[in-house]
Amino acid sequence: MHIAELRRYPVKSMLGEVVPQVRLDPAGLDRDRALAVIDHETGLVASAKQARLWRDLLQFSAAVRDGHVVIEGPGWTATSDDPRIDHLLSAALGRRVRLTGDRPAGATVERPDPQDVLTHGVEAELPSAPLELAQGTPGATFVDYAPVHLITTATLAAIGVEALRYRPNLVVETPDGTPAFVENDWLGRELRIGSGVVLRVVLPTPRCALPTLEHGSLPRAPQALRALLDTNRIDVPGFGVLPCAGCYAEVAGPGVVRVGDQVTAG
């Protein structure tokens, strides 16, 4: 196996960037999910998991350029430290928001049941369970759970959708004949990458309705969730039986990961 793609997302729920190499430490990828949009009314972290309110975040993109996070919105481009940024985001999203790199204590997103979203549509007002962010990471970023998220080409090929819909950090190229959802077998194992990076797989990655939404110019893709509901519901420790694709990992050995690096499951 080897690393086919490296992706990071400087602002939570915005489109991110593909990079040729990146440093990993116990907090995750450098500058990944370092920033998030906070809703002024509720104090919750804005996440496209709550599609009714925040799916338009997937029409924004964020990338690191010359040390700054550059955000592209509808008809404008600004850095994250631009004094206009909160106004620009609020106007584009239709809600008063602020951009921050300081994760509030107990930072939480809303997560409607993904099957409810498929059944009733993205505009429906649905019950939403609160999900506290970063429960499995020592860092101060806005990751959903653990510092690193992986998915394999075998799983993506079986589902038939683009990698970016699942917002992975590492896309692992697997040999021909590798079964879909091989990530399920990695739970509790270590993955060695390149010349010294070690990841320890801690959970299968539960899926919300986000992969089914429009991502930039990509149209909606209900099959990104339906395939998992039909074929890969997993008992995720602490969370229940959920549709999953990919896996979460913690960084046991830090270092630089590069596209093309060999990956070995121990």
TrEMBL record:
Coiled coil ranges: none
Entry-linked InterPro entries: MoCF_Sase_C, MOCOS_middle, Pyrv_Knase-like_insert_dom_sf
Gene Ontology molecular function, alphabetical: catalytic activity; molybdenum ion binding; pyridoxal phosphate binding
Limits of the MOSC domain: 124-266
Pfam name, any one: MOSC_N
Domain of life of the native organism: Bacteria
Protein name per the record: MOSC domain-containing protein
